[in-house]
Design goal:
Structural class: alpha/beta
Strand content: 15-25%
Number of strands: 6
Radius of gyration: 16 Å
Distance between the termini: 38 Å
Number of helices: 6
Number of domains: 1
Helix content: 40-55%
Length: 175
Amino acid sequence: MNGTEEKIKLEHEAARIFMRLYQQRFGIKMRHIWHNEPARPDVSCYYDNTKLDLEIAHLYGSEVEAMHILGRAISAETHRELMALLRTPPEHRLLTALNRIISSKAEKRYQSDHVWLVIRNANPLWTRQDMLSHLDKLHMPKRHPFQQIWLVGDMAGESGILAIYPADIRQQDGS
């Protein structure tokens, strides 16, 4: 499997997990998923009979951590970078990585009327509780294309989903 195929597989898996968890929690049907071409969000689905686009991001921490987590071969220099990085407190890396993803995705423009950002935590060092304790420290750009931003707490979705944006959803979520 090449890098593009692997990325699409990860995006579809993240979208399916999010849709299942959202539907279980809110009782609103989400179904039928397909992959989009660039200029549109990663995947599309139906949300209670309305077309909804999902932009998918995976939260690893850094490129070096992503390579390590995905089991990619790393050079001796990259290994040294990883060891130095792992000495940085995990909560600092979490907040930095989340802010980086949100900021980066906020700059994009999509050909879509309804876009949600779904971030799936792929770093096994970070727990749902870690994320809950940092939500109030996130830097939300004033302008971004997302109606809602959600976080899937782990790769399998076992810890559920957390609402990041807008604030009224976060209150409903207990975040």
